[in-house]
Design brief:
disordered N terminus, 5-stranded antiparallel beta sheet, single chain, alpha+beta, 4-stranded antiparallel beta sheet
Length: about 240
């Protein structure tokens, strides 16, 4: 015989499964001893201290060679500007170099080539990030594309530990509530599992116009970090 009781809170759901009720809550039934499984969520807020910005360089010319040469020149100017602005070489990465033909209206024939390239920079001085992006735009001119920015927290160890503690405490409190409601005594912890997030998160991307920007305001705001755990307890 089995009974299932469910209790839902604002941020977690606890499930009590009691098996082998005719034998007593501590007796095994079907190979599984009776127990309570609960879930908890811990949420903490921190201030981002790192900005990752993806800068695109796009050029176009009648020949692929000319478009590629111009793109290389402008990408080099962009990287040099980032370095002279204080960005370390290990925080700069190029990617997604592509050469594609452009077509006349109607698609009858090729009339040129477009080259795109991406430079990803990790910035650790957020207050200075706006001026740095402005300088990058000045160095590259109309070829610049500010494609995405993402804020993050470089060292979130302490925040994550706090969120874990909150999650475990919440799961424990709900398990005790269900044990009391079922008339059983909560036993020792059988297992604790941290549940991976389904979507990583961080968050705040934006796309800018393709034209040069006169000023780039950068505000990191705050960022939430969530930890989810599942805890199983024995019951007596």
């Amino acid at each position: 015989m089995s009974r299932v009781l469910m209790a839902a809170g604002a941020t977690a759901v606890s499930i009590l499964v009691i098996t082998g009720c005719s034998r007593g809550p501590s007796d095994p039934a079907d190979g599984q001893p009776a127990g309570i499984s609960s879930q908890g969520t811990g949420t903490v807020t921190g201030t981002p201290d790192t900005l990752t910005v993806v800068l695109g360089v796009q050029t176009q010319a009648a020949s692929a060679q000319a478009a590629l040469a111009e793109n290389s020149e402008k990408a080099t100017a962009l990287i040099d500007t980032l370095k002279t602005s204080g960005v370390a070489a290990e925080d700069i990465q190029t990617s997604n170099l592509a050469v594609n033909p452009t077509w006349e209206q109607g698609g009858a024939r090729i009339n040129g080539y477009r080259v795109t390239n991406q430079v990803t920079a990790t910035l650790h001085d957020i207050p200075a990030a706006g001026e740095l992006i402005d300088a990058a735009a000045s160095a590259v001119g109309d070829a610049i594309r500010i494609q995405q920015t993402t804020f993050s927290i470089a060292d979130d160890g302490e925040l994550r530990a706090e969120a874990r503690a909150q999650a475990v405490q919440q799961a424990q409190a709900q398990a005790r509530q269900i044990a009391d409601a079922a008339g059983v005594t909560l036993g020792k912890v059988r297992s604790i599992v941290e549940i991976p997030q389904t979507s990583p998160g961080v968050p705040t991307p934006y796309a800018s116009p393709e034209a040069r920007m006169d000023a780039v305001p950068i505000e990191p705001g705050s960022q939430e970090l969530d930890v989810h755990v599942a805890v199983t307890y024995e019951i007596r």
